[in-house]
Amino acid sequence: MSESGIGAPVRRTEDQRFVTGNGRYTDDINVAHQTYASFVLSPHAHAKIKSIDTKAAAAAPGVVAVFTGQDVADAGIGGLICGWTIHNKDGSPMQAGGHPALALDRVRYVGDHVAMVIAETLAQARAAAELVAVDYDILDSVVVTGKAKDKDAPQIHDEAPGNSVYDWAIGDKDAVDAAFKAADHVTSLDLVNNRLVPNPMEPRAAIGDFDPGTGGYTLHTTSQNPHVARLIMSAFLGLAPEHKLRVIAPDVGGGFGSKIFVYAEETLCVWAAGKIARPIKWTSSRADAFLNDAHGRDHETMAELALDKDGKMLAMRVKTVANLGAYLSTFSSAVPTYLYATLLSGQYNLPSIYCEVDAVYTNTAPVDAYRGAGRPEACYVVERLVETAARELNLDPIELRRRNFIAEFPHETPVIMTYDTGDFGASLDKALELGDYADFGKRKAASESGGKLRGIGFSTYIEACGIAPSAAVGSLGAGVGLWESAEVRVNPTGNVEVLTGSHSHGQGHETTFAQFTAARLGIPMDQVSVVHGDTDKVQFGMGTYGSRSGAVGMSAISKAVDKVIAKATKVAAHLLEASEGDIEFENGSFSVKGTDKSLAFGEVSLAAYVAHNMPEGVEPGLKEGAFYDPANFTFPAGCHICEVEIDPETGTTEIASWVAVDDFGTIINPMIVEGQVHGGIAQGVGQALTEGAVYDADTGQLLTGSFMDYCMPRADDLPSFTLGFTETVCPSNPIGVKGCGEAGAIAAPAAVINAVTDALNIKDIAMPASPATVWQAIQSSTKQAAE
Amino acid sequence: MYEFDYHRASSVADALSALGKAEDGTVISGGQTLLPTMKQRLASPSDLIDIGSLDELSGISADGNGVTIGAATTHATVAGSGDVNKAIPALAALAGGIGDPHVRNLGTIGGSIANNDPAADYPAACLALGATITTNNRSISADDFFTGLFDTALENDEIVTGVTFPRADKAAYMKFANPASRYALVGVFVAKTGEGVRVAVTGAGEDGVFRVEEMESALAGDFSSAAIAGISVSSDGLNNDIHASPDYRAHLIGVMARRAVDAANG
User: Fold this and answer.
1) Which of A223, A444, A560, A747 maximizes the CB count within 10 A of its CB?
2) pLDDT digits (tens, 9 = 90+) for B145-200
3) Phi, psi at residue A573, to the nearest 5°?
4) Looking at beta carbons, which residues of chain A come within 8 Å of B1?
5) Taking CA atoms, what residue in B is nearest to A122?
6) Domain of B76?
């Protein structure tokens, strides 16, 4: 392996510009004659809009225009869409209410967009926004997931009676019910998967621009998928035809899912730029990000696991209520269904599973995919059930898992997944060894002697990345296909531009994709640059989410590289006067087998562009594109072990150690992969111990609207992680990669809560298990013990 | 942030004059609370009168009785002061644990106590040590200074100029931080001075900082954590929010007080 070959821990090339302040984010960009937008947001969780008076705002200094929902409707601009139609149990499509970019007659959550004020300066726009007088008739609101379908709950959308978006189910109910009847033991848990605010470091931003000369629009935006944004804005919202709308997502400072979606603000910046024929810039404040970036998770679940007397799992029954907020965000409907229930088999041989999901509207911010998207919720259900079952059966949680691990592949689960490969025992064994499980008892005793409670928790997770194939997701209701595109442009001098339809917003694609391509072409890594995030440069792409860029995006690059090599081989054979079959391509050199005749990659590329001497029928140039549609999901899996030490006096939980052994298939850059695992675990620990969005149950106000009240995990909340890897090569893509971006966030919450409940010897505890919550749990269990 | 007029005061007298002329003026020192509040458009003073760089308000002096800290002295300066570390190390440690490095290098003691945030650290030190707050026209004992939530004995035309802390025989501050904001969810300052023992609690009370007299009496007889182990603090009048119940805060007062006494006995 060379210093930058596949598998080498190459430092991220993009970091130099990021850490030296030379990144170019949307808010860094300014366009001549630009104006600034500020939005009037609803201060109420639910209200009728009786009237909107914009006169004073329009007359305020510097104001260029003020728009309301009526203006947008009059212009024929469509509402924001949800791109995945889920079907009810009876086969009917889900009940989706409209989502106008600016509210028409009703606001449905605190932060709902009411009016857009555009002015010469940001200060003028904000000041004028306060002059927009909205007369509200306040209505009752409901924010609690489990109360959305109560009889007395207010009706949020006329189209969705009882606030039901859909009632959906998967699996064989009769088989599950029969298995539960015959079971020796049933473990039951009522679980809440807490609502999270994504909080990428860079808030969302947009600059809409209109060129009256060409009739073309340009949008700079913080998007994880600029082509999808353009497609939605063109085909569904009717802002401009695709060929007249350029969407650029430059450097983007984190997304975690929240920048997949098409929001009101960028939509309105594009539309209004055409109306006023001037560019419009909008940058979210952190406060607005808390209110309006799509939140994550928010499930209430009843879960049951049936086992026989030997601890063999027989069946699982799950009923989940999923809170989708006040409007259906772009991919929201798919998250608690096909990205959640399909993973409920975990790493286990489960003969039957039945899962019902009721998705509901509430007067809260829309909920959509957030790092892991459905799979953290599934893993939490499965791994909490398994650990609890082991405790109830007095079995070592390791032993219960081993008795039920899937060992033969491919394996078809009862919830439509076909696991292609894996070795769950191997990752478990390695984690136990790295974590020195054998000596846990000694560590627990040492903690106890210091007045602390120690617990250990396991999470043997599996997840699904690279959601695919397109035909399959189409049959399940997706509005788009989930392939990826790539183009490899070899320049005459032999350096290379790789254009990818995926998008890097922290993942390090500029390094990994260059590393991969350079290794395949046998050229130095600095001879490859990666281009992404501009619909004028990259023909099309589906973007980055669901840990798909390695498995899907890089596979497309691999296919394009294959084509480049194939064509270059033809050219080389012609120049070397050999037959194509006798040409070997290795280390950047085309050589004739058994001779010393060879040409460097750059010599061949130059020859292809000079084109003085091309083989007959071969076009000049060296540039190839490819579309790659995966044959299956990929299935990263592994074992995370968390040890916690709890101070029973204060309820403070400290993570004493963390071992993660992951099977991501082939790894291109272990340094980047480790960074992804670290970040994922940090977010999972955040969910388990510190983070939780809280709305006031009476007023619907977001109580955790800033970092003063919403607790992001910090470096000193986390231990130094011990990481290990096992490898089963993914058979469904040409590289063998599975994906690593979300595994930590998927595995971690269950590992933490399993450890906390072990330390406290209790069945369950709510997330986030804050010091106050842990202390309360200790008081309750002490009281129970006394009674 | 709304528009405002900015004045850099040349003296305390100049600041008072500017304050008198302003329609709705506010004194700013380090601005670590005021500026975020203004940025969120929750405060809109017509005028900001900056006293942060006045030499007459900055600096630390010590004598055998204690230390006097100028109102515009930053938390970082207090934390790093040899005089404070020698006379009342617990006070230096408290200052070193306020906020983050940014806050500590801009925020000032005068600003902190004049704001009297119910979760701020300094009020606990002032009350427990029996500090004297000096203004442009009088001296106020800490007992009389902190009058309620974000409320003090300061008049509208009055500016804090310094705080005098008596030397302590033993003292320690223990803070249980709010996990999100890292302000004190409960902070307990325990001090044994020539005047006796005091226990002051910040972060927990609905009306801001307060003393726990039952603990003070017990510690006066026996300055050990065992002496207060049996004392439970009532949850009446304690804050209730999404981070902590009154019961939890009451419990933490006991835990932090015991830990503070142990630390003071070092």
Assistant:
1) A747
2) 999 999 999 999 999 999 999 999 999 999 999 999 999 999 999 999 999 999 99
3) -60, -40
4) 123
5) B1
6) 58-266
Please give the structure tokens belonging to residue B185.
């969810």
Please give the average per-residue pLDDT across A233-237, as a whole number: 95
- Report the CATH number that the domain containing residue B163 is assigned in CATH: 3.30.465.10
State the smallest CA–CA distance between residue A225 and chain B in angstroms: 32
pLDDT band at A2 (very low <50, low <70, confident <90, very high): low
What are the chain A neighbours of B242 within 8 Å (beta carbons)? 694, 703-704, 709
DSSP B205: B
Residue A703 sits at the chain B interface (C-beta within 8 Å): yes
Q: Do B180 and A650 touch (CB under 8 A)?
A: no
Distance (Å, whole) CA A8 – CA B225: 56
Q: In this predicted complex, what is the ipTM?
A: 0.96
How confident is residue A787, by pLDDT bands cut at 50, 70 and 90? confident
How large a percentage of chain B has pLDDT more than 70?
100
Residue in B209, B184, B44 with CA at minimum distance from that of residue B128: B209
B37-49 pLDDT, tens digit per residue, is 999 889 999 999 9
Touching check for A690 and chain B: CB below 8 Å?
yes
* DSSP result, A351-407: SEEEEEEEEE--SS--B---TTTTHHHHHHHHHHHHHHHHHHTT--HHHHHHHHB--
Whether residues A710 and B40 touch (CB distance < 8 A) is answered with no
- Reference B99, options B86, B81, B117; nearest CA is B117
* Residue in B closest to A285 by C-alpha: B40
Strands B47-50 and B25-28: parallel
Interface check for A38 against chain B (CB to CB < 8 A): the answer is no
Mean pLDDT for B126-132 is: 98
Residues of B in contact with A710 (CB under 8 A): 180
How close B165 comes to chain A (CA, Å)? 30
Residues A200 and A26: beta-carbon distance below 8 Å: no
Query: How many domains does chain B divide into?
Result: 2
User: For residue A551, what is the domain's CATH number?
Assistant: 3.30.365.10
Give the pLDDT confidence of A382-439 residue by residue, as tens digits.
999 999 999 999 999 999 999 999 999 999 999 999 999 999 999 999 999 999 999 9
* Domain limit, last residue, from A605, A628, A651: A628
Residues B112-121 have a mean pLDDT of 96
- In this prediction, residue A786 carries a pLDDT of 82
Q: B125 with B34, same domain? A: no
Question: Do A771 and B40 lie within an 8 Å CB cutoff?
Answer: no
Q: Considering its fold, how many domains does chain A have in total?
A: 3
Report the pLDDT averaged over residues A443-466: 97
Q: Which of B40, B181, B244 sits opposite A772 (nearest CB)?
A: B244
- Same domain for A341 and A270, yes or no, is no
What's the whole-number average pLDDT of chain A? 97
Q: Could you tell me which residues come within 8 angstroms of residue A544 by beta carbon, excluding any fewer than 6 positions away?
A: A224, A225, A255, A502, A503, A504, A505, A507, A509, A553
Contact status of A697 with chain B (Cβ, < 8 Å): no
For an interface test with A, which of B243, B256, B262 has the most A Cβ atoms less than 10 Å from its Cβ? B243
Same domain, residue pair B49 and B153: no
* CATH at B18: 3.30.43.10
Last residue of some domain: A292, A317, A348?
A292
Average pLDDT for chain B: 97
Tokens standing for B244?
A: 């902590």
- Structural domain of A579: 483-628
Is residue A145 included in any domain, yes or no?
A: no
Distance from A781 to chain B by nearest Cα, in Å?
15
Instruction: Give A468's pLDDT tier (boundaries 50, 70, 90).
Output: confident
Residue A733 lies in a domain: yes
